[in-house]
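Much of what follows relies on a compact textual record of a protein's fold. An example makes this concrete, so a full record is given next.
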Amino acid sequence: MNTKVNLAGVEFKNPVMEASGTFGSGMEYSEFVDLNKLGAVVTKGVANVPWQGNPTPRIAEVYGGMLNAIGLQNPGIDVFVDRDIPFLKQFDTKIIVNVCGKTTEDYVEVVERLSNEPVDMLEINISCPNVKEGGIAFGQDPKAVEAITREVKRYAKQPVIMKLSPNVTDITVMAKAAEAGGADVLSLINTITGMKIDVERQTFAIANKTGGLSGPVVKPIAVRMVYQAANAVNIPIIGMGGICNGEDAIEFILAGASAVSVGTANFMNPRATEEVVKGIEDYMIRHNIDDINSLVGIVK
């Protein structure tokens, strides 16, 4: 039974990883999860300088998921290179670094710093607000998507994954723009903008007013967007959004994802990623599937 998948020339032992920002950089979860069993570990967002993140409170529970407005708090590239990469290198898993920034130059600086580091792929978080363009996220304007993809590709030594925002009218326009800019892989979806009001306190549940909605509640939207993107581009897709078990993962693969990321489920069940790996294997045995790749995008 073959669970190996190949994304832009990088071979993963299985198609399962965790979603950036739900797992730290693996250190916190290594007590609960055998990182050697995952196809890859995706790090928390890394910026060129330390980011404080948003004021608290910045997480709220909602029906079927959660809202977060962490604001990509991170210690910056220097700490990441010195501390997190050596930790992850102990394990037999691929390392994908999630990169965030406020300007194109910010992204490029981190990408350049990582060019000689032992990491396998870069995931570019284009849901960040573009400071120079008045705060609209890079991922909400197809011209900006193509431009930042092209610029990052000029400097990247590793294959580039562009992480797409679902907060757009037509996900296929963004997927095609990233492909046109030279993206090697796409990952989707990032969180959906939402809001919760605390009725007893009569104020916003999150200090930022809005936050990113994630968890099982977004899964049908995510599956639809992965299906649309997979049928619009010719590069592989990492699907995510509400995956909690093997069946959820298979649903994304049937829709067109070559690999999957587990996010919010990690907060409820720290062993979720390992259980998804096992769930995929059980499904393959149950359906006499020899090769996981034979399932990618077969539902048309």
User: Anything to note?
Assistant: Residues 5-54+71-191+215-295 form a domain with the TIM Barrel fold (CATH 3.20.20.70).
